[in-house]
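Obj.: predict assembly geometry.
Materials: sequence records (below).
Method: joint structure prediction, all chains together.
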Amino acid sequence: MTLQEIINDSKRVVFFGGAGVSTESGIPDFRSVDGLYNQKYDYPPETILSHTFFMNKTEDFYKFYRDKMLCLTAKPNKAHLKLAEMEKAGKLTAIVTQNIDGLHQAAGSKNVYELHGSVLRNYCMKCHKPYAVEDILNGSGVPKCTCGGTIKPDVVLYEEGLDNDTVEGAIECISRADCLIIAGTSLTVYPAAGMVRYFRGKHLVLINRDPTPMDEMCELVLHDKVGEVLDKIVL
Ligand SMILES: [Zn+2]
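Observations (raw structure tokens):
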């Protein structure tokens, strides 16, 4: 079956997306070799984006974070737009994403499970007052709440656990889906591989530039750009 035939045959599509979905909007992939590893920083991104680093070197964290993580000029691409259309048309029940850029919601998607949180939400660690991303971007040094507490992005850092409700909601949607499209992820990163095991539906589709360990399990594998592939779907 082609992707179009699979979509025609499905009523409850769930889309599981990784970094590859956002790179087409110009947002760098932290885990790819041509990503940020080769850039000039005192520490590797995985160290900077860890809970320990945030707590101990908060100012250095924010220097990197403002510079590299807040791509607020990024716009939804063809993949985001088509998925929002599919939800409106009643074809797609949920998006599960590893990305933290909020681009699915910007494209109009409503039911989005953000496994790793969102840069658009920020909270005071002391009184939990919410702050907009602009408050982080436009400030300098360590962003502080009016109460004096430190503001932290609602992003899951390395060493931190995922939000339980988000994980459970995502698994629930995946287990009820009749079609699961995995895209832009190599599926080697927790929890992607584990969550896919909850899928019991008919059509398992994988769209990724490079081959993944999951390729052989899937009904359809497309080694292509996610936006290009999804854009061709006719609803
Ligand atoms: Zn506060």
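Conclusions so far: The chain has eleven helices and nine strands.
To do: check interface contacts against the pulldown list.
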